[in-house]
Amino acid sequence: METIAIDYPRPEVAVLRLNRPESLNALSWQMVRELHAALDELNANNRCRVVVLTGAGRGFCAGLDLRDQNNPGEVVAGLPSGPQAGLLAQNQMASLIPHLRRIQQPLIAAINGAAYGGGLALALGCDIRIAARSARLCVQFIRLGVSGCDIGVSYMLPRLIGASHAHDLILSARAIDAEEAERYGIVTRVVNDAEILPAALQLADELCDFSPFAVMATKQVMWANLDTSNLEAAIQLENRNQILAGLSGEAEEAALAFFEKRKPRWSHERGQD
Fold first, then answer.
1. Among 8, 115, 125, 155, whose Cα sits 20 to 30 Å from the Cα of 17?
2. Is residue 273 scored above 50 in pLDDT?
3. Are residues 141 and 221 in the same domain?
């Protein structure tokens, strides 16, 4: 892959890096295709347990690459310009967001600079977001002559920060800094620029202390229950995963480790002995 890089600081943690620093990692159609491929690769890697998504250089992702828009339908779908080609191209980009949600690993967005438009959508599609102090976030779609609602932002942003703030940011297309993003609840932590990747990796290491099944199941249930119709349905899904977790033997190991005053050794670790 030319526009995406995957590094493994340790086998259980991957750094998924948008790698077009000369354009602040703007989304080209090649990057869209390669990001889908990278997510499939990570999802198939059962040793990897947490993914950190960040950008190369001084930006996270500046949004759609406007220099790469001559005929996206032809590039993506092999069709001449028209509604079908355009819809197929639009869907390939927008489907990145459910793809982020679908992979087994939790994703930590390390927002290291500008996260505009589609770049903000990628950050919102992650499970946890932290930001460097220099980060700037903007729902810029309406400035480009299209609807302000794109790539899942109209679904994700109100659920994170409420309808009032979401309407403000989507309709005004104003940029906010990292501190305002933290106040709204878009990000949960702001760190100095030099600390953004170390902070994300430290959080990834903390998640790796937990049972792999527990982390994967937690991600699935959190997103599923965000849209569930009622409390009873949410509890039924929670109950299912708790029983599955109990059958894994991990609860017994967690209790034993507590009484022995040590860190648990989960089943995949015990299997390596």
1. 155
2. no
3. no
Please check whether residues 85 and 172 belong to one and the same domain: yes
Domain final position from 155, 184, 207: 207
Can you tell me the mean pLDDT for 220-240?
A: 92
- Would you state the pLDDT for residue 80? 63
166, 189, 207 — which closes off a domain? 207
On the question of pLDDT at 114 being above 60, the answer is yes
**Could you write out the three-class secondary structure of the chain?**
CCCEEEEEEECCEEEEEECCHHHCCCECHHHHHHHHHHHHHHHCCCCCCEEEEEECCCCCECCECHHHCCCHHHHHHCCCCCHHHHHHHHHHHHCHHHHHHHCCCCEEEEECCEEECHHHHHHHCCCEEEEECCCEEECCHHHHCCCCCCCCHHHHHHHHHCHHHHHHHHHHCCCEEHHHHHHHCCCCEEECHHHHHHHHHHHHHHHCCCCHHHHHHHHHHHHHHHCCCCHHHHHHHHHHHHHHHHHCCHHHHHHHHHHCCCCCCCHHHHCCC
Judgement on whether residues 223 and 148 belong to the same structural domain of the protein: no
Share the mean pLDDT of the chain.
Answer: 91
pLDDT in tens, 42-98: 999 999 999 999 999 999 999 989 776 656 666 665 666 777 777 888 899 999 999
